[in-house]
Amino acid sequence: MRAGRQVESEQIMELIARCVQVMQDGGSDQWDESYPNREVIQEDLEQSNLYVCEVEGAIAGIVVLDENQAEEYGAIHWVQNQGPHLSMHRLAVHPEAQGKGIARRLIAFAEDHAVRGGYTSIRLDTYAKNSSALRLYKSLEYDLRGEVNFPGRTASFPVFEKVIG
């Protein structure tokens, strides 16, 4: 795992486009052409918050780790109220690499990053229609803390927390 590089923005956008297509083909409107867009990814890269997992020299997955929480998180009853808290965003695995443990590797990296950074918890949300992500987070002992809604989406976003340490 390593920080993504500016020169990889096209490869990252292609990975996202492939993920969006698979989501939409499966009936999910979690991501679309407007999110995550090129500007969002460019900002992630500029802030060195986007990490990549490579397999055989190609980017197989990405995750963004920062302290930014959606405003909607304010309504969530968190277990760990003492900070700082690490937020996990935009976890994506190239469709051709799915089912090979890439997401688990990215999450393990996020957890190690949280420990090294002195974070007290990891917070994230995923789409209610994303059954594989829901199963994954539960299997990795992330606790469901509630749900939020974002404009333009037909389903809610379950919110998870994992206390670190």
Features:
4 helices; alpha+beta; single chain; 7 strands; Aminopeptidase; 27% strand; GNAT_dom
What does this structure look like?
The protein has a single domain, classed as Gcn5-related N-acetyltransferase (GNAT) (Aminopeptidase, 3-Layer(aba) Sandwich). Helix content is 31%, strand content 27%. It contains four helices and seven strands. It has helices spanning 9-25, 38-46, 102-117, 131-139, and strands at residues 2-3, 50-55, 58-66, 85-93, 121-125, 143-148, 157-163. Strands 1-2-3-4-5-7-6 form a seven-stranded mixed sheet. It starts with a strand and ends with a strand. The mean pLDDT is 94.
Q: Report the CATH architecture.
A: 3-Layer(aba) Sandwich
Tell me the number of structural domains.
1
Shape: globular
Which class of secondary structure composition applies to the elements?
alpha+beta
- Our count of helices gives 4
Overall pLDDT confidence: 94
CATH class: Alpha Beta
Percent in strands: 25-35%
Going across the major beta sheet, what is the strand order?
1-2-3-4-5-7-6
Query: What is the H-and-E element order?
Result: EHHEEEHEHEE
Q: Poorly predicted ranges (pLDDT <50, ≥5 residues)?
A: none
Number of strands: 7
CATH third-tier fold name: Aminopeptidase
The percent of residues in helical segments reads: 25-40%
Rg over CA atoms: 15 Å
Largest sheet: 7 strands, mixed
The name of the CATH superfamily reads Gcn5-related N-acetyltransferase (GNAT)
From the N-terminal CA to the C-terminal CA, the straight-line distance is 22 Å
